[in-house]
Design goal:
Length: 239
């Protein structure tokens, strides 16, 4: 009898009974994931498959691969904005395809990026995604699991061409934080951004770009959910 079928036959609906029944299995397994579950048994409810070596979410991440390009979309207020379309993949140790992840994701946007300088680049904005918000960006294809997102350029006073950089960090549930390198992207000025979009490589053209982010300015603490559509589609806001 499989583990999943055993769980289906557990009487009652309380999640705590699952934990009590599965803890002896963890204690007998002697594996590293078992010690993590003993410290946090609630992880069993989120991802019971990890007990048999098939985790639903990859926690032991080794690398983040990002692809960014200039694009157009909607900002956090639903207004047209130039910005960056990104495809993000997470890899576990020894994995050749993108993994599904769960945790808090931070995307840092650096303005007027000059890689030859030794000092820390200027942080323009940091977008925060909780686990449920980030899951809405997930897609699955030939590369495995990947995440597509549009990040608006929030320095609206600057209409000129600017060199920016983006960095992705994840704090996975039950795992160690990991971050990508800073990816340099040249953002055209307002009068040239449409031509740049026309030359896009097209890696996100057939997928809906979503931006579910929380602002980090001190005057704003409310989290809004914003769906950012492809050109020609309408946008929707979820409270």
């Amino acid at each position: 009898m499989s583990l999943s079928s055993s769980l289906d036959r557990v009487p009652g609906s309380g999640g705590s009974r699952w934990v009590l029944l599965l803890l002896p299995v963890v204690l007998l397994s002697g594996c590293q994931s078992g010690s993590t579950l003993i410290r946090n048994p609630s992880l069993l409810l989120q991802d019971p498959g990890q007990l048999v070596g098939r985790p639903r979410y990859e926690r032991n991440l080794a690398k983040i691969v990002t692809i960014w390009e200039p694009s157009q979309g909607k900002d956090m207020n639903g207004l047209n904005s130039r910005g960056f379309a990104g495809q993000i993949l997470f890899f576990g140790a020894g994995n050749e395809s993108g993994a599904r992840v769960r945790g808090k994701v931070l995307i840092s946007l650096y303005d007027d990026y000059q890689p030859e300088l030794l000092e820390e680049p200027t942080l323009l904005h940091r977008f925060e995604f909780d686990a449920d918000a980030w899951e809405m960006h997930r897609g699955e294809g030939t590369l495995g699991h990947s995440y597509s997102v549009f990040i608006p350029y929030v320095n609206t006073e600057n209409k000129d061409q600017v060199n920016c950089a983006l960095k992705v960090e994840i704090q996975p549930d039950g795992g160690m934080p990991i971050s990508s390198r800073e990816t340099e992207v040249l953002l055209p000025g307002r009068n040239t951004v449409s031509r740049a979009v026309a030359r896009t490589r097209g890696f996100v053209e057939n997928r809906t770009r979503r931006d579910i982010s929380s602002s980090t300015p001190q005057h704003s603490t409310k989290l809004d959910t914003v769906t950012i559509p492809l050109p020609g589609q309408s946008s929707a806001r979820t409270p």
